[in-house]
Amino acid sequence: MIAEVIKAHEAGGKKVKKTKGKKGKKGKEETSSILKELKNALRPVMAERRGEEGSRPSTPMRSAHDQLMESIRNRTGGGLKRVEIQHHLR
């Protein structure tokens, strides 16, 4: 769903009319920052936690999350790849 929003935003960005005044520029900056936040949210868990110390999630939990995020990022029109939900996450 997030990937669809990003693609729709990128496709719609070309069709947006130019607005007059400062409001148009501020709105564009805000939407681009929101878009960057969405893209950063789709990064794998391992990349986020490389510099952090402390407890890490177990390997099966991380790989399931990474598989889910990768399937969302690489989603085509066909649908998402099914990933089995761990018993302790149900």
The largest sheet is: none
| Record field, number of beta strands | 0
| Average of per-residue pLDDT values | 69
What is the element string, with H for helices and E for strands? HHHH
What is the structural class? mainly alpha
Helical segment tally? 4
Strand content: under 5%
Radius of gyration: 17 Å
Give the fraction of residues assigned to helices: 55-70%
- Termini separation comes to 21 Å
- Low-confidence spans: pLDDT under 50, at least 5 residues? none
- Count of individual domains: 1
Sum up the overall morphology in one term: elongated
Oligomeric state of this protein? single chain
GO molecular function: actin binding
Protein name: WH2 domain-containing protein
Organism: Champsocephalus esox
Question: Can you offer a commentary on this structure?
Answer:
Residues 64-83 form the WH2 domain. This protein has helices spanning 2-13, 22-41, 45-48, 59-73. The model has no long low-confidence stretch (mean pLDDT 69). The two termini are 21 Å apart. Helix content is 57%, strand content 0%. By secondary structure, it is mainly α.
